[in-house]
Amino acid sequence: MSGFPSRRRLLATGAGAALGLGALGAAPASAATATASSTSPRRTGSGAEESRSLDELYQAALAEGGKLVVYAGGDTPTQQDGTKAAFLKAFPGIDLKLIVDYSKYHDVRVDNQFATGTLVPDVVQLQTLQDFTRWKAQGRLLHYSPAGFSKVHEQFKDPQGAWVAIGAIGFSFMYGTAAVGSDAPRTPLDLVDPKWKGKIASSFPHDDDAVLFLYSLYVKHYGWDWVAKLAAQDVRFARGSNSPGEAVGSGQYAIGVGGSGAPLGTGPVKWVLPDSAPFMAWGQRAAILKAAKNSTAAKLYLNWQLSTAVQQNSFSGWSVRTDVTPPTGLKPVWEYRNANVDGFPRFMSDRAEVERLKQTFALYFGEVKGEPTPGVLGLHPGA
To answer: 258: left (phi > 0), else alpha (psi -120 to 50), else beta?
Structure first.
């Protein structure tokens, strides 16, 4: 979970360019002088919103030492390069370490650092939504409301400001427009047509919880018989939610399942936003750790991520903010009932059900194989 391109680039190149969960937006060079809050501070459950401008926060972060470490969920070592480049262009002089790994490794890594008194990151932005609820209960998270917090959709923030979503991401299936021609699949049911045998790539559902939730929605709608038919399709399974888009974009496979993309993309890979069939979307949560060494730089980062300039350049076209209008042809992501935005947090909180589904899919598709696509990072990356 290679950095997310800007919305403009994705609309030009399509879902094949979205190789997983990387840069959640790109701010213009003028972001450092933009105002973090254009109005007086609003009261929320976590107190007043940040009233300092991005430039004021930037200067304070430099005075603090100018360092920042972010642990980000993702699939490849370079996936956050776009985010890092945009942030450093706006705020030169900040020493930003943005470490990408699977969220399921980052969260236990942070837990181990808590246990051993060796905490490294200042900010965590992860797909493992249940961890933010747990860490809040443990008193591990700083309650803080960035500028624009009151404009973030209610489903995408903690009322007390313990965490806030900084990007809206959707998972579905995709296809190569040249490979499928006029016979494009429109629903998951189309994927079990024998004509697609040997032409489908998917990320392992029992390796990535977002992909697992997507597959669980397919099971709920189409039954386990659909899974059995898909298992007979000679699907190429691989680790990393970037893998389906890469496989389709390279022309090796016609269809990919279990990856992100841009609904309005016009490139050679079409990410499918179904009319009524299920897909899944969520807000990628971020939080400042209460024990962070660089809390001011962490605040700068969250304010920048939530700024309208960054949110308007969302790779998917969707924003977590209610005052950022999606491009023509899209509704806000929470208005799609088939996106199951409410369902993913509930799903992630039921770890027994998650584990049961993982093992069940292993019976159909075999055990997860392959090295982790971000590499093996050890206990203290970024230290």
So the answer is: left
Residue 359 is which amino acid?
Answer: Q
In this prediction, residue 192 has a pLDDT band, given cuts at 50, 70 and 90, of: very high
Structure tokens at 61: 């972060």
Mean pLDDT to the nearest integer, 175-201 = 97
Q: Which of 254, 257, 210, 261 is nearest to 365 (CA)?
A: 257
Quick check: 286 pLDDT over 80?
Answer: yes
Over the range 212-239, which residues count as b (16 or more CB within 10 Å of their CB) and which as e?
bbbbbbbbeebeeebbebbeebebbbbb
Round the average pLDDT of the chain to a whole number and report it: 90
CA angle 253, 14, 87 (to 5 degrees): 120
Type and span of the H or E element at 242: none
pLDDT at 266: 85
Total residues belonging to the chain: 383
Helix (H) or strand (E) holding 318: none
Q: Please say whether the beta carbons of 25 and 266 come within 8 A.
A: no
Q: Give the 3-state secondary structure percentages of the chain, helix then strand then coil, rounded to 5.
A: 40, 15, 45
**Does an H or E element contain 237, and which?**
strand 236-238
Specify the pLDDT at position 92: 98
- Tokens 């500028």 -> residue: 147
pLDDT of residue 265: 85
Q: β-strand 47-48 against 236-238: which pairing, if any?
A: unpaired
